[in-house]
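Chain A, query sequence.
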Amino acid sequence: MNPIRCFILDDEIQAVHNLRLALETHCPQVELVGYAHNVGDAYDFLTQTQTDILFLDIRLQNETGFDLLKRLNHFQGSIIFTTAYDLYGIQAIKFSATDYLLKPLDHLELTGAVRKATERKKERDQSAQISMLIQSFENLPSQRQKKIALAEANEIHYVLIADIIFCKSDNSYTTFYLNGNKNITVSKPISEYENILEPYGFIRTHQSYLINKNRIVSFRKEEGGYLLMEGNHQAVISKQRKHLLKELFA
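Chain A, predicted structure.
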């Protein structure tokens, strides 16, 4: 089996060393073919060398990892972000269904991210995901982001947030019910989406429901009370959250 070729962009020498050691120890199938501490050097290397996985830090000294992605619009490998906590950066990553690892690295999360990166089908359009990442990162602070990426096993869907009627949880899976009688199920818990969708009019009405208040038709009092959503869907509102009704219909 051919080794998986990876590259690291991080401005901290120790961070590069830590990731390289973790890969050697826990991901022996991965070969580190290069690393850089700035965008220019990383770009020069990646345009000349085939790379399967790019480990990318968000915040560099005077740049960001997104500056590299703007220049690598035809990169076909997988991207795994490695970062200290960064509000807007991580929000952008979540919007675009890209993997990220928080520093200090957790070995189980690293091996899981590498496994998912290597299992992804080569025919996925990485340019679309890179474009989504850049758009999300640049627009999130001003709340102008309009799409979210939802990753199924073999396909990433880029969905207008306004088209989401509600989300329903099933343990570690979340199903998105969309305008046009469509639905998409992703292997992430509903809590992953509560914070990033809240600024766009979404409210958690129940442990299992995250609803778009702009898609509510009415509140029905029978059967303990529930929300009738567009598309004739029913969404539960728990007793503990009945106080939200005033906000929902404000």
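The CA atoms of residues 198 and 204 lie 9 Å apart. The first strand starts at residue 4 and ends at 9.
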